[in-house]
Design a protein that fits this description.
4 copies of one chain form a homotetramer.
Chain A lengths: L1 E5 L5 H10 L3 E5 L3 H9 L3 E2 L3 H6 L4 E4 L4 H9 L4 H4 L5 E4 L5 H13 L4 E3 L2 E2 L1 H7 L2 E6 L2 H14 E8 L3 H29 L4 H9 L6 H4 L23 H18 L4 H18 L17
Parallel strand pairs in A: 1-2, 1-4, 2-3, 4-5, 5-6, 8-9
Antiparallel strand pairs in A: 7-8
Helix pairs in contact in A: 1-7, 9-12, 9-13, 12-13
Chain lengths: ~300, ~300, ~300, ~300
C-alpha cells in the first residue's frame, strides 16, 4: 500500500520504519530535514509539504504529532490535509490529544468522505522500534477493520475502543490511572521500607495481594526490585515525567469539560508538576518516588 | 494440637471453625456468650477468661481482636495472657494493628520465652469461611515454620514478611495502596464513561495496559463490569468502607511516626471518611465510585 | 463621554446603569433583546451589532462577557471590534478570562492604536448594582489614569496591577486563594464544632488569631455566625459555586501553562467540582461546608 | 501568689520569668538542671520533683510540656501531681495536646477537687518573652476568672473558649486553618509572580480583597513583601515547620476520632511532612513556599 506519513519524531520515525519493513511504499514529511533524511535512507520517498502528501496517490495517511494544535493545523489549516486530500483516502492520527479535538477533526474528515481513526499508542520509543506498540483505536468498525493490518505492522496489541475519539479517551483514562498507581506504589514501598521491610519482599507480597498493579509488578519504582525497570538504571529511558504530565493535562482538561471530578488525578498532576519543576522532567515518571525518599533532590 | 482461640467475631469464628475442621482441639474465649456457644456446638471447649486459656495446657494461642487497645489489654493487661501463660507456649496475633504495638507486645512475649508472631489476614469473611485467607506473618523464621501448618488450616497463602511487626507493615502498606488504586480506578472509569466509552470496553483496555490492577481486573467498582464483584450487587458484602478507613488510619499513623509522607494515602483516607460520613460506612469500599457519579448520595 | 457597552448580563447590566447614572451617554449591545430593552428604558441607545458600536462615535468601549471565547469573537472575529473600530478609541474588557488571552487581545489592539485595559471585577451582582465593585486593572499607567473616573462610576476600589493581563492575574490568584481559604475555614469550623465548640466562639477566636481571613471574619460559611452572609440565608445570593469553579479553571490552566504547581488550588477545584456535580452549582460557594457536615447532600 | 511551674523549655522559661516579674513567688521544676538554674538566678525556688511541688504550699500549678505523653505522666503517673497535690490547688496546663487527653486529665483533676484549665498558647518564643502570648482557655468560667490575672502576667489576649478541652480545640482548629492558608498564599503568590506580577503589588491587592488573611497581610511567605517577617530573613525565627507538623498531627488525629473529614488539613500535613523530610524542619513554616519555587531545595 502507498502510505503517507507526517511527523517523524522519536515515535513517528521508528513507526514509519516498521511500515517500510512491512513492504509498504512510504511518502514522508516532517519539518526537520534530518528526520526526513533518515527515512529516505531507509527507502521512503520525501515530499515537501503536507499538501504534497495530500496530492500524491496515497491510500492512507498517518500522522504522529506532538499536540492538538499541530493536529488542527495539519488537518484543518489553510494548506491542511482536509483542504486537498482526495476523497476516500483513509486517515489515522496516532498523536495523543484531547478527545474533543479528535472528534471534531474526525467529524469534519468523515463529512467530506475521508474515513478517520484516532489511534494513540502506548509502549514508548522502545515499543515503537520493536513494533510492539499498543494502539487504542477510535472510529467506525469497518474503518478499524480496514486499518488493522497496517497497524499490526507497527504494534502488537490493537484495540478497538468504540467510535471516533474513544482511542484518546482510553489512553487518557488509562494513563491517569497509571500516574495515580505509580504514586500509590511509591508511597506504599516508601512507607513499608521506612517501617523496616525489605523492598523486594514487600513488592512480592503486594504483587500477590490486592495492591497488585503494573506499577508494582512490572515497573516498580523502588531501585533494585525489578531488573530492567527504569528504577534499576537511575530512572533513565522509559516514559518521561514531562510526557506523563502532558497526558495528565489532557485528562484533567477533558474532565473539566465534562464537569467530572478527578480528585486523585488532579493531585497526581500537581505532584508530577512539582517534581518536574525541581528539574526532573526528563527522568522516567517512576522517579516520583524520590519525592518520598527525603533525599536532597 | 490443643489451641487456644480468643476473639470469635466475624473473622475469628470461621477461622476457629476451620481449626476444628483440621482436627485440632480448641479452647475458646469471647466476651459474647452467643459467639462462644456457636463454637462449642461445633466442638470447641469454652473457657471463662483469658487467664483460663493461659492456665490450660494449650501449646498455641491465637488472638483475633478489633484494635490495638484490645490486643494490649489481652496480652499486657493485669489479667492478661503474658502474666500467666506457661513458658514456650506459642502466640499468634491475627488482629490488624499498628506495627509499633505489634513489635512492642512481641518483644515482651519473646523476652519471657513465648515466641510470638503477628499474622494479620486479608480475604474478608468469605476467605475466613472458605479457609482461603492470606496471612502476612512477622516473626522469627523458626517460629514461622512451626506455625505454618496451623495457619494453612485457615488460609491458602501464607507469606513470611520478616521479623516481628512486618506482617502488620505488609498489610497496612498493601491496603493503603489498595485504597488509592480503588479511587484511581473509580476516577478513570467515571472519566472514560463520561466521555462516552462503554465501561466494559474501557475496563478491558485498562486490564491489558499499564493501568492494570486488582481494583480494575478483579474488583472493578463500576456496576456490571465484573460479575460477582460487590459493584454488581449494589456494594453489599466485600470489605466495608469503615474497615478500609481503619486500615488507612493505621497506615497514616505509622507514616506520621516514621515522618514519612503518604500524600495520596492521606487523601484517600479523607475521601473515604467523607464518604462514610455521608452514611455509607457499611457499603463495600468500592462504592467510593459513587462520589464520582454526581448522583444524590 | 459617549461609551459603548457590550454584554448586558447579570453583571454588565447594572454596571451599564451606573454609567448612565454618572451621566455618560451609552450605546449598548447584547444578543438578548430583553437585556437591551432594559437599558434602553434606562436611557441607553440600542445598536444592532458589535460593528455598529465600532462605527459609532464612542470614545470608549467596555465589554463584559462570559468567557475568553466570547472575548476573542467580539474583539478578533471577522466582524469584531478590532476590524472596524476607529483609531484611538479606548477599550476596557471587564470579563474574567485567562491572562494569556487578555494579553494577546491587548497586544493586537495596542498595535493598531487602540489602548486596551483588562479590568476584571470582584464584588458580585450586589457590588455591580451598588457601584462598589473592585476593578483589578492591567495596562499602561497612562491608559489606567485615563479610565479611572469611568471605572469609579462603577466601582469603589480601582487597583492598577501592572501591564496588560495583570488584572486577570490578580483576579485568578486572589480567587484561587479565596477558594482554598473558604474550604480551610469550612474544615476548621466543622472540626471545632464536632469537638464541642460553639461556632461563634470559635470564629471569634480565629478572627483575632493567625487563622484570621475574609472567609472567616466576613463571609463565614457556618450558618448563623455572620448575619447577612449567605450561610445565614441558606447559601442563596452571593458568589455561586459554578462561578468559583470557572475561576479555579482559569487559575489551574494558567498554572499549567506556566508549569507552576498549585497543589491546594487544584484540589480545591476538584472539591468544588464534586460539590457542583452533586447538584449544588448554583449555591453560594461557601456552601462547600456541607461536604463536611455529613448530612445528606 | 505562690505558684508551681513545671516545664522550663523555650516557652516555659520566659513565661515563668514573667510571673516572677509580676511579683509572684515561684517554685519550679524541670528535668534540665540548666533550665532550673536560670530561673533560680531570676528569683525562683528550685524543687527536686513533681511530687515536691505538689507537697509545697502552692495555690496554683502551671505546666508547659512537649506532648500529651508528658502531660499524662506529670499529672497521672505514679508520682504524678494528682496523686499528691492538696485539694483545691488550681491547675493550668499550657501544653499543646489533643483535646481528648486534655479533657480526660481535667475530669480526673476536677473529680478530686482540683480545678483545672487547659490553656495552650500562641505567639511563639517572642510572645512568651514579651508577655504578649494569646491564651486559649478551656474550663469552668469561675476557674477562668480566678486564673485571669495570672495569665495576664504572661499574655495579652486571654480568651475563654468554653468547657475543659476547648482551649486545645480552638488551638488545633486555628492552626490547621493557618497551615492551609499559608500554603494557599504560597500558591497564589507563586502563581501570580510566575505570570508576571510584582510580589508586593499582588500582596497589596490580595490584602484588600477576598483573599485577605494573616498569612498574607502579616506573615507573607514571599521574601521582601513584609519587612520583619521570617520570609525576609531567610525563614529563621518564627514558628518552625516541625512545630506546625505537630499541631497538624493533633488536628488530623482529633478529626479521625470524631470521624470528621479534614481534606485540605490532611493534605497540608503531608506537604509539610514532605518539606520537613527534605531537611527543612527547623525553618519557619512559611518556607513551604520553597516547594513552589522550583529551586533546588
Amino acid at each position: 500500500m502507498h502510505i503517507g506519513f507526517i511527523g517523524l519524531g522519536n515515535m513517528g520515525a521508528p513507526m514509519a520504519r516498521n511500515l517500510l519493513g512491512a513492504r509498504h511504499r512510504l511518502s514522508v514529511f516532517d519539518l526537520s530535514q534530518a528526520a526526513v533524511k533518515g527515512l529516505v535512507e531507509a527507502g521512503a520517498n520525501a515530499v515537501h509539504s503536507v499538501t504534497d502528501i495530500a496530492h500524491s496517490d496515497v491510500e492512507l495517511i498517518i500522522t504522529m504529532l506532538p499536540a492538538a494544535s499541530h493536529v488542527r493545523q495539519v488537518y484543518l489549516g489553510d494548506s491542511g490535509l482536509l483542504s486537498s486530500v482526495a476523497p476516500s483516502v483513509r486517515l489515522i492520527d496516532s498523536s495523543t490529544i484531547d478527545p474533543m479535538s479528535a472528534r471534531e477533526v474526525a467529524a469534519i474528515a468523515s463529512k467530506q468522505g475521508n474515513p478517520m481513526l484516532d489511534a494513540p499508542v502506548s509502549g514508548g520509543t522502545g515499543g515503537a522500534e520493536a513494533g510492539t506498540l499498543t494502539f487504542m483505536v477510535g472510529g467506525d468498525t469497518a474503518d478499524y477493520d480496514a486499518a488493522l493490518s497496517v497497524l499490526q505492522s507497527m504494534g502488537k496489541n490493537i484495540v478497538h475502543c468504540g467510535p471516533a475519539g474513544n482511542g484518546q479517551v482510553a489512553k487518557v483514562a488509562n494513563n491517569m490511572l497509571l500516574a495515580i498507581s505509580m504514586i500509590g506504589v511509591s508511597e506504599a514501598m516508601s512507607l513499608g521500607v521506612s517501617l523496616g521491610m525489605d523492598a523486594k519482599v514487600l513488592a512480592g507480597i503486594i504483587n500477590t495481594s490486592s495492591g497488585r498493579c503494573w506499577s508494582s509488578d512490572t515497573y516498580n519504582p523502588y531501585p533494585g526490585v525489578i531488573e530492567g525497570a527504569p528504577a534499576s538504571r537511575n530512572y533513565t529511558g522509559g516514559f518521561g515525567t514531562d510526557l506523563m504530565l502532558k497526558d495528565l493535562g489532557l485528562a484533567t482538561e477533558a474532565a473539566k469539560q465534562q464537569k467530572q471530578p478527578v480528585i486523585l488525578g488532579a493531585l497526581a498532576q500537581q505532584l508530577y508538576q512539582t517534581f518536574s519543576s525541581q528539574g526532573h522532567g526528563t527522568m522516567d515518571f517512576s522517579a516520583i518516588i524520590k519525592m518520598y525518599s527525603g533525599e536532597d533532590q
